């Protein structure tokens, strides 16, 4: 398996929150190293270093790949999960999924490659994050490199708690803006870009009337 030198920029650092419903602002500080939040499944998952796993997991489809990866790397059965989005970039596939374990919700992503000769998928990286129930939607920023060319990627993903949210708008530090439209079935969102790593400065959620529901300012 190709090494994925990934560093996780998991944070909610001094976030200015704007809520249309209450017109209030608050500051939230959250450390990525807060082991208390990564309880239950995450305590078991991070007993090993997923970045250094050398055994390749292969499968004929992405659902089976997720299940086999969880069982092989973490000794867990991924039963209550749902694939919400697949984004193909070159030969790689970023798969967004939600997972329920011990009655707690998690959002995660799988990065895999597809071998056209064998028509099988290979796991490169797999990670999950706990749902933040204190806000209408949660934010995780992840960035790293993949493949032998050391290409860089940037990812913004999160969990949707407020079902009134129908659109997520992500603005990056280089003023690039990406719009993610959500369906009624979406419980999470993901935005992936390639190139130089850049931070999301502003992530805003809107309802179906294009009214601002919630906003993170970094």
Helix and strand topology:
Blueprint: E1 6-9, E2 12-17, E3 27-30, H1 41-45, E4 58-59, H2 62-74, E5 81-89, E6 92-101, E7 104-115, E8 120-130, E9 140-146, E10 151-159, E11 167-172, E12 177-181, E13 188-194, E14 200-206, E15 212-217
Antiparallel strand pairs: 1-9, 2-3, 2-15, 4-8, 5-6, 6-7, 7-8, 9-10, 10-13, 11-12, 11-14, 14-15
List keywords for this structure.
single chain, 218 residues, mainly beta, six-stranded antiparallel beta sheet, five-stranded antiparallel beta sheet, 2 helices, 15 strands, globular, disordered N terminus, signal
Distance between the termini: 35 Å
pLDDT < 50 runs, ≥5 residues: 1-40, 44-53
Q: What share of the residues lie within helices?
A: under 10%
Calculate the mean pLDDT score and round it. 76
The rough form would be described as globular
Largest beta sheet, briefly? 6 strands, antiparallel
Q: Helix count, per DSSP? A: 2
Number of strands: 15
How much strand content do the residues show? over 45%
Radius of gyration using CA atoms only: 17 Å
How do the strands line up in the largest sheet?
3-2-15-14-11-12
What structural class should be given to the helix and strand makeup?
mainly beta
Q: List the helices and strands in order.
A: EEEHEHEEEEEEEEEEE
Number of domains: 1
Task: Kindly summarize this structure in a few lines.
The protein is built from 2 helices and 15 strands. With 218 residues, the protein is mainly beta. The protein has one domain.
């Amino acid at each position: 398996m190709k090494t994925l030198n990934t560093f996780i920029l998991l944070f909610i650092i001094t976030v200015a929150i704007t809520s249309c419903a209450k017109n209030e602002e608050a500051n939230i500080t959250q450390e990525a190293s807060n082991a208390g939040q990564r309880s239950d499944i995450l305590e078991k998952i991070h007993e090993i270093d997923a970045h250094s796993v050398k055994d390749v997991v292969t499968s004929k489809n992405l659902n089976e790949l997720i299940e086999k990866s969880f069982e092989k790397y973490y000794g867990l059965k991924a039963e209550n999960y749902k694939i919400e989005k697949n984004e193909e970039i070159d030969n790689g596939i970023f798969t967004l999924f939600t997972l329920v374990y011990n009655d707690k919700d998690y959002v995660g992503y799988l990065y895999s490659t597809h071998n056209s000769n064998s028509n099988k998928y290979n796991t490169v990286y797999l990670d999950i994050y706990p749902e933040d129930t204190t806000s209408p939607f949660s934010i995780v920023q992840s960035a790293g490199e993949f493949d032998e060319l050391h290409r860089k990627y940037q990812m913004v993903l999160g969990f949707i708690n407020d079902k009134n949210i129908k659109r997520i708008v992500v603005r990056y530090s280089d003023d690039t803006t990406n719009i993610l439209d959500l369906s009624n079935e979406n419980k999470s969102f993901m935005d992936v870009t390639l190139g130089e790593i850049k931070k999301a400065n502003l992530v805003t959620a809107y309802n179906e009337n294009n009214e601002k529901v919630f906003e993170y300012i970094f």
